[in-house]
Amino acid sequence: MGISALTPPSADDVIETVLEFPDNRLLIDLCGEFDRNLAQIEHQMGVHILRRGNRLAVIGEKTAREQAAAVLRSLYARLETGRAVAAGDIDGAMRMGRPVEADSAEQIELFTTGMELRTRKKPIEPRTEAQKAYVANLFQHELGFGIGPAGTGKTYLAVAVGVTMFISGAVEKIILSRPAVEAGERLGFLPGDAKEKVDPYMQPLYDALNDFLPAKQVQKLMEEKRIEIAPLAFMRGRTLSNAFIVLDEAQNATTMQMKMFLTRLGEGSRMVITGDRTQVDLPRGTASGLADAERILKGVKGVSFNYFTSRDVVRHPLVGRIIEAYEADEAQG
Questions:
Q1: Quick one: which H or E segment has residue 270?
Q2: Going by DSSP bridges, is the β-strand pair 143-147/117-118 parallel, antiparallel, or unpaired?
Q3: How many CA atoms within 13 Å lie on the side-chain side of 180?
Q4: Hey, how many other C-beta atoms are within 10 angstroms of the C-beta on 223?
Q5: Residues near 98 by Cβ (< 8 Å), separated by ≥ 6?
Q6: pLDDT per residue as tens, the chain (333 positions)
Q7: Helix ranges, 81-186 (H)
C-alpha cells in the first residue's frame, strides 16, 4: 500500500500538503528520534511539518512544500525496502530533488538502480546528481576523471567503486596512489624511513579503505599485494593489469607524471583520476598534469569527465559555504 497525498492537485492556494503513511512503525523511523529527521527537513527546506496520527502535513510555499513532500516520499520508500534513514540519507534525498509526481516505485528506484555500492562494511550511495553520474561513468568507462573541490566525494566514491568491483571479482587488485608533494613541510625533515615519511600523504586513502573493509582484511590484502597504496613515483615502469586504479590529488602531478601514470593502464583495468584545480601545490611555473590531461583527453573514446561544485559537498554544510566564499573572492579578484 503506497503513500497518498490528500491535497487536491488544483488547490494552489492551499498552503498545506498532507501525506498519509500506512505503516506507523516506518513513520516513526521516518520522523526520527524526537522528530529530528523532520526538523532537518524543515530547517533545510524552509517548511513546517506537523504530525497528525499516520499523516504528515507539510506547510509552506508551494514549491518548497512539494519538494519536501517528495523527499518524505523517497525516504519512506527507502524504509519500505528495509533500509535505515540517517542524516546523510536525508541530505542526499534533498539534494537529489525527486519530483513530487513520482510514485513509490520511482522513489524506490533511486536506491535500487545499481547506484548502491556494496562494500563489506556498509552500502554507499551517491548523494547528489553529480555523484550519481560520476559513479555510473566509473562503471561504464575504462578511464574516468572526477574534478572539483574538496568534500565532494570524488576519491571516496572512487574507492567505493573499486572495493565493489574487487568484491565482485571484476578486478583482482586495488591500487591507490597520490603524488607525495609537500604543502608547507619538506619530506626530508619528517622523521622515519621512506615509508613513514610518505604514509601521512597516503592517509586519506587508508581512511577510505577502512570505511569499506574490515581493518584485518585490509591488512591481509595489503600483505598479499592485492591492495597497494603507494606514491605516484612508485608507479613508473609498471603495467597495471586487472586492477582498479585511483590517482588522488592529481592536480599535483606534473604533465610527465600524468602521462606516465595514464600509460600504466593494462588489460582488464579501470583507472580513476581525481583532483581539485584550486589546490595545486606544485612549484610556481610547473604545469599541472591534471589540467593538461583534461585538455588533451576531452573527447577520447573510453574516457569520462565528471565535474563537482560546492553544491556537491557532502561534509559539514559549512564547507560548501566556505568554498563558495573563496570562489566569489577569486571571481572579484
A1: strand 270-275
A2: unpaired
A3: 21
A4: 9
A5: 70, 71, 73, 74, 106, 107, 110
A6: 455 555 544 445 557 889 999 898 899 999 988 888 898 888 888 888 998 888 899 998 888 888 889 889 888 888 888 888 887 778 777 766 543 333 333 333 333 344 567 777 777 888 888 998 999 999 999 999 999 998 899 999 999 999 999 988 999 999 999 987 654 444 455 555 555 666 777 888 888 888 899 989 999 999 999 999 888 988 988 889 999 999 999 999 999 999 999 999 999 999 999 999 988 988 888 999 999 999 999 989 999 999 998 888 876 667 667 877 887 887 776
A7: 87-96, 104-112, 129-140, 154-168
Angstrom CA distances, 246 to 114, 178, 240, 241, stand at: 21, 8, 11, 13
Residue 73 · residue 102 · CB < 8 Å: yes
Task: Give the C-alpha distances (Å, rounded to integers) separating 274 from 119, 124, 141, 248.
Answer: 21, 18, 15, 5
Q: For the whole model, what pTM was predicted? A: 0.67
Q: Are 123 and 116 in contact (CB under 8 A)?
A: yes
Q: Is 56 helix (H, G, I), strand (E, B) or coil?
A: strand
Q: At what angle do helices 62-80 and 36-45 cross, to 10 degrees?
A: 150
- The span from the CA of 90 to the CA of 32, in Å, is 11
Cell 523527499 sits at which residue?
A: 71
| Ramachandran sector of residue 152 (left: φ over 0; alpha: ψ -120 to 50; beta: rest) | alpha
Closest CA to 88 of 121, 61, 126, 119: 126
Using DSSP, state whether 98 is helix, strand or coil. coil
Indicate the DSSP class of residue 9: T
DSSP assignments along 176-187, one per residue: EEE----SSS-G
CA dihedral 57, 61, 63, 64 (to 10 degrees): -60
CB 245 within 8 A of CB 159: no
